[in-house]
Each structure stands twice: as C-alpha cells, then as structure tokens.
C-alpha cells in the first residue's frame, strides 16, 4: 500500500458511562508502545463536560495518576461559563489527531458523547447555525414536554439520544432543525480515517452497580464542594443546571430544592437512563466491535495496527 495516500489510523473507544473507557484507552496506548506497534499513542477525550475547566469530579475527568504517563488531549479547554459547541470540538479534535499522526503515534479517541465521536470519525459537515434570539425566546416559553414532543416529531433520531431534561440542548437542537429544515445527518459507512471502534459492553445490572458505586465515590471525593466552588466562581445556577446530571442535581440540592437522599436517588436513575441513551446511539453503528474484556480489545488493536 502507498502510505502517502493511506488513511491515517484512528482507534475509538466508546460505550456507556461508568463502563471503563478511560482505563481501557490508557491500557491500549501502553500496549501499543510496549508491543512497538507504533512509536506511541495518545488519547483524545470525547466527553462534552470534560472539556470544561473545574468540572473534574462530577464529569469523571481522568487524573494525572490515572493517565499513567499517556498524553491526553481536549481536557480543560473551555470555560464552563460558556457553551462549547460540537463544531469547535470537531475542529480541535481533528487538529489533535493530525498532530499525533505526524509524530508517528496512534490517536485514540475515547468518550461517551456520541455526537462528538461521530463528528470526528464520520467527518460530519455540521450546520453552522448562529443563535436565533427570537426563536429561542419563543421556545423558552414552551414546557420541556412540549419541546421533547416537537423534536420527536421533526427529528426522532436526535430525540432518541438527547438528554430530555436538558432544556438548553433541546432548544438548541430545535433551533438547528427549524433553521436548516434538516435533521441531524444519519451515520454513514465512510470515514476519513482507517478506523477501529471498540465498544465496551456491560450487562445492565453490572452497569447499574458500577454507576451507583461511582456516584458514592464522587460524593465522598468532594463533588458537592466542587459544584459549590463553581458557583462561587461565577457559574450560574442556571448554567450548572444546563450542564446536566451531577451538576444539575447537586446544584438543586445545594439550593435546597431537594434533599441529599433525593439527589442521590434521582441522580442514579438519571445516569442509568443516560447510559441507555448512549447505547441507543452507539448501537446504530454496526462497525463497532463490542468487547467485555481488555484482552479482547488488545487482540483487535494488534490485528488492526499490523494489517
């Protein structure tokens, strides 16, 4: 094969929240170096909340120790006070991939934000739709249930995967569809990369146990203090609510809207439902190789890089 015209190789590690994606990506990167399959590998985060500074415990952002000397990209690249768009993510991720490839290393895209993954691996041409103040004002007057129903009617694919409690995302999705008169583009079989996508599969009960255990660890590690600190540093309650999951429900607890027990119970349910939406998104892609052990993943990686 003429390497000058070959597509650059890209490995993607996907799956539901709490399934162990970050650990697997690091293990793959270390394996690539140890087996001299390339000069090394680097990880690019594909998580819509880990891009923000200060969203550490609640987003499950990987720590320096957990990175085990593997370089990571697209963590802490935006202020939580402002929205970070998928268009900006796509641009930065493609730039990081090109840099990694130029240095003879293997890029590993790792995360659970399906739209981020697809924007890179399928090279979506994303609609460049500026804010529509008049339309937003009109949509803000509608109930959340009404917004969900409208999105389901005009873009059922996006409605099936969006956080249906996140009014900001619902309004933005409707804004794009109503402005472009076109739904989110369906996934295609083509990619600008020679792509291996590895998905982590976990039985539902095991995943729920992992989610519950992780939530208690995060609370013990200071997640409530993290959310309080973000608010003290100028992130509004409304913005924290819009950041979803841990940041939404912890902020509501801190405001006295619900008890600690209700916060934990609601969060557990919401995260489990979020994991189901993630799987709905990823199962649309028949090219994903689903694995249950690290060993299975390493076999796939070796075969992929040696071909």
From TrEMBL:
Residues binding substrate: 17-22
The EC number(s) this enzyme carries: 2.5.1.75
UniProt-listed GO biological process terms: tRNA modification
Pfam families reported in the protein's UniProt record: IPPT
Family matches, as InterPro entries: Dimethylallyltransferase, IPT, P-loop_NTPase
Cofactor: Mg(2+)
Origin superkingdom: Bacteria
Region (Interaction with substrate tRNA) location: 47-50
GO molecular function, one term: ATP binding
Leading EC class: transferase
Residues noted as binding ATP in the record, renumbered to the chain: 15-22
UniProt site positions, description: Interaction with substrate tRNA: 113, 136
UniProt keywords, alphabetically: ATP-binding, Magnesium, Nucleotide-binding, Transferase, tRNA processing
Catalytic activity: adenosine(37) in tRNA + dimethylallyl diphosphate = N(6)-dimethylallyladenosine(37) in tRNA + diphosphate
NCBIfam families, sorted: miaA
Quaternary state and interactors: Monomer.
Family: Belongs to the IPP transferase family.
Function: Catalyzes the transfer of a dimethylallyl group onto the adenine at position 37 in tRNAs that read codons beginning with uridine, leading to the formation of N6-(dimethylallyl)adenosine (i(6)A).
Stated name of the protein: tRNA dimethylallyltransferase
Organism the protein comes from: Candidatus Wolfebacteria bacterium GW2011_GWB1_47_1
Gene: miaA
């Amino acid at each position: 094969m003429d390497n000058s015209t070959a597509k650059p190789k890209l490995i993607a590690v996907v799956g539901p929240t709490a399934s162990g994606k970050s650990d697997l990506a690091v293990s793959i990167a270390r394996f690539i170096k140890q087996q001299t399959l390339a000069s090394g590998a680097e990880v690019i985060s594909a998580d819509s909340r880990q891009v923000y500074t200060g969203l550490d415990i609640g987003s499950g952002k990987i720590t320096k120790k957990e990175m085990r000397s593997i370089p990571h990209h697209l963590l802490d690249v935006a202020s939580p006070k402002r929205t970070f768009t998928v268009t900006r993510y796509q641009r930065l991720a493609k730039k990081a991939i090109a840099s990694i490839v130029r240095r003879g290393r293997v890029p590993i895209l790792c995360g659970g934000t399906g739209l981020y993954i697809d924007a890179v691996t399928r090279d979506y041409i994303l609609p460049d739709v500026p804010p529509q103040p008049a339309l937003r004002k009109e949509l803000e007057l509608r109930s959340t249930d009404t917004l969900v129903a409208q999105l389901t009617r005009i873009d059922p694919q996006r409605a099936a995967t969006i956080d249906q409690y996140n009014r900001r995302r619902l309004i933005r999705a409707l804004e794009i569809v109503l402005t472009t008169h076109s739904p989110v583009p369906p996934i295609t079989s083509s990619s600008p990369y020679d792509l291996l996508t590895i998905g982590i599969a976990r039985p539902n009960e095991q995943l729920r146990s992992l989610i519950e255990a992780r939530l208690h660890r995060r609370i013990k590690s200071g997640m409530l203090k993290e959310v309080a600190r973000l608010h003290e540093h100028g992130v509004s309650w409304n913005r924290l609510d819009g950041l979803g999951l841990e940041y939404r429900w912890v902020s509501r607890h801190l405001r006295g809207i619900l008890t600690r027990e209700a916060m934990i119970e609601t969060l557990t349910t919401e995260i489990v439902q979020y994991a189901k939406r993630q799987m709905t998104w990823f199962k649309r892609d028949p090219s994903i190789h689903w694995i249950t052990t690290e060993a299975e993943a390493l076999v796939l990686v070796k075969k992929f890089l040696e071909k």
